[in-house]
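User: My instructor asked us to take a sequence, write out its structure as tokens, and then describe one feature of it. I'm not sure where to start. Here is the sequence I was given:
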Amino acid sequence: MAGIAGSWPDIAGSWPEEPIDDELLTSLIKVNVEGTTKVTQAVLPGMVMRKKGAIVNIGSGAAIVIPSDPFYAVYAATKP
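Assistant: Let's start with the prediction itself. The structure tokens for your sequence are:
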């Protein structure tokens, strides 16, 4: 399984001085954290049964690229 999904709203990077609102934060967590967890839970039993498989989750370098932007910092923190 390769976990590469992520949430990327249209407003990314357009408001570097404004805080992240609760709705955006909830959306990022729901897609990036809960989504990864649920997909992993779905495929893991089959891998254990077959005694074979791999889980590869792709994170983000967003916090390194633009560490002072609130969106990129929060986005990177929610990536596995």
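For the description part of your assignment, you could build on this observation: The helical segments are 22-50, 62-65, 70-78. Try explaining in your own words what that tells you about the chain.
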